[in-house]
User: Which sequence fits this backbone?
């Protein structure tokens, strides 16, 4: 069975302690989360059987539109939590970027792209990793062809927005993955630059 973080073995939830805000419900199965049928097929097809502890607590608040801060160690299912939550809120008939995921490294942004493509396999979700070190021309072609989700690093995403290649008017969810690491790496100004271009009624997940 695949580990819920997109790689490695899942951590033993039994040994973890969780603090949650008032009103956060623990939901023990994917079926009970109200997730769309085509996404459920992708989740089970990817090898997930049961949500990890962080998924049991964070998926419902995210897909119901709440701003969420979810902190957990590596290997607890954060990447797949982001992927399935984002896929749930995407309208695939709208061919514009609706969710933006910022990560501190190219590797993490690319891993998120891969996991999202896998769990969103049956719903035709279009995801693109917008990271430094790749061809700008490729980014421009992909973005202009229409994608639903961009997973990227702050510098390249900011560049694509300023070039008006990444259009932000339909973005409804911003995810800052490993936000503390992004700040410690000096991405604060770039994140703020990106945020300034996003719609005011934005949902944010850290």
Assistant:
């Amino acid at each position: 069975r695949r580990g819920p973080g997109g790689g490695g073995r899942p951590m033993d939830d039994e040994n973890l302690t969780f603090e949650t805000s008032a009103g956060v419900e623990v939901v023990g199965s994917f079926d009970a989360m109200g997730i769309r049928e085509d996404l459920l097929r992708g989740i089970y097809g990817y090898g997930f059987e049961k949500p990890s502890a962080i998924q049991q607590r964070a998926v419902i608040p995210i897909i119901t539109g709440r701003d969420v801060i979810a902190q957990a160690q590596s290997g607890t299912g954060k990447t797949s939590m982001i992927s399935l939550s984002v896929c749930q809120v995407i309208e695939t008939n709208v061919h514009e970027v609706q969710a933006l995921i910022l990560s501190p490294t190219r590797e993490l942004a690319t891993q998120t792209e891969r996991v999202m493509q896998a769990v969103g396999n049956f719903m035709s979700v279009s995801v693109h990793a917008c990271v430094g070190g790749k061809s700008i021309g490729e980014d421009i072609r992909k973005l202009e062809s229409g994608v639903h989700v961009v997973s990227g690093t702050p510098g390249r995403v900011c560049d694509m927005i300023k070039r008006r290649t990444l259009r932000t008017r339909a973005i409804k969810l911003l995810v800052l993955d490993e936000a503390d690491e992004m700040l410690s790496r000096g991405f604060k100004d770039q994140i703020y630059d990106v945020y300034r271009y996003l719609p005011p009624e934005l949902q944010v997940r850290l």
Notes: Confidence is low (pLDDT under 50) at residues 1-17. The first strand starts at residue 99 and ends at 102.
